[in-house]
Amino acid sequence: MSIRLSILDQSQIGKGESAEEAFLHTITLAQTAEELGYHRFWVSEHHNSDDVVGSSPEVLLAYLAAKTKRIRLGSGGVMLQHYSPYKVAENFNVLAALAPGRIDLGIGRAPGGLPLSTRALQQEGGTSKPLEEKLKELDAYLHNRIEETHRLFGLRATPIPQTPAPIYLLGTSTSSAELAAQAGLPYVFAQFINGDEAVIRAAFIRYRERFSAKSPAEAAKREAILALSVIVAATDREAREWASEYKNVKIHLEGGRTLTVNSIEAAEAFGVQSGEKYRIEVKEANIIAGSQNTVRNKLLELQRVYQVDELIITVPLKDFHRRLDSYVQVKEAFADESIPSR
């Protein structure tokens, strides 16, 4: 079974690095990914963070489109709950016109930051529309299909590109899988956030069973993708040592929400800013770590178990050269099995 490989880069900022240096690393990674034959290169959205600099994926993608030629580029993902679907559609229509056939619009469900940044993004009024409704609006704007009964009938999200950016829904639960299925969208499960095997398996089963398609064109949108964290080193032991530095920290809020952050400090800040009682749970990060051959075998097994169409790789290492080398080694490991970038 062939495998399609892609990259999610979170624009990490290493110790002593500037934001300018961190972005230069992202540019180098995108260009290297294109040279190596990765299928797509996505960037993330995080706010008010000391660890990553990518707070505006739309702006970063425009620059990356000018610095690459073939590779697909996308958001992993835009946090739609903060924004107007109309404005997101305009942004990605501009991108799709600048880089025809190369832009993906990944939509995330997490806040992408702590409560203070959420309040700043949403202003005093916040957001009252559920994500499901916002997704429908976004799709309608992207494809210029506003219904006559809609209060904004006649409105267009210009420019109108020949090939609108396809929407991908990102998630970590069966509920996000069901939302993607009902909306008829490709689905990306973030295993590096939720590594519970039973949940991953159940999410993909539900997605496949409940995927809604009324035509062959809609059926073609059914894609099951697994996003996971990987570290490749010369030996299994060295890779495990590097991976041991990273933790998945969950904060459980009294109101019922559970979120994953990358440090105890971030979890405590989230709890304080939320104004709710909370508890913190610390686990080893969900990282596939090992030598080139070990990682290859583990990834092939995950593809077999979950029957996914594609793997999106993210490397959490802050050291840029180690991070770059992991991506190179993953692609080398799959030189015979991977599907060439289209």
**Can you tell me the number of structural domains?**
2
Reported by name, the CATH topology of the largest domain is: TIM Barrel
Structural class: alpha/beta
Kindly state the percentage of residues in helix: 40-55%
Family: To bacterial alkanal monooxygenase alpha and beta chains.
GO cellular component, one term: cytosol
Pfam family, one: Bac_luciferase
Domain Luciferase-like: 4-304
Describe the structure.
This is Luciferase-like domain-containing protein. It comes from Brevibacillus borstelensis AK1. β2 (40-43), α2 and β3 (72-79) form a beta-alpha-beta unit. The chain has 342 residues and is of the alpha/beta class. The strands form 2 sheets. An 8-stranded parallel beta barrel has the order 1-2-3-4-5-6-7-12, surrounded by 8 helices. A 3-stranded antiparallel sheet has the order 9-8-10, covered by helices on one side. The relative contact order is 0.14. It has 2 domains: 4-237 and 286-333, Alpha-Beta Barrel (TIM Barrel); 247-284. The mean pLDDT is 92. Helices cover 41% and strands 20% of the residues. The radius of gyration is 19 Å and the shape is globular. It has helices at 19-36, 57-67, 85-98, 115-122, 131-142, 174-183, 197-210, 216-219, 236-243, 264-274, 292-306, 320-333; strands spanning 4-9, 40-43, 72-79, 103-108, 167-171, 187-190, 224-232, 247-253, 258-261, 278-284, 287-290, 310-314. The two termini are 18 Å apart. It contains 12 helices and 12 strands.
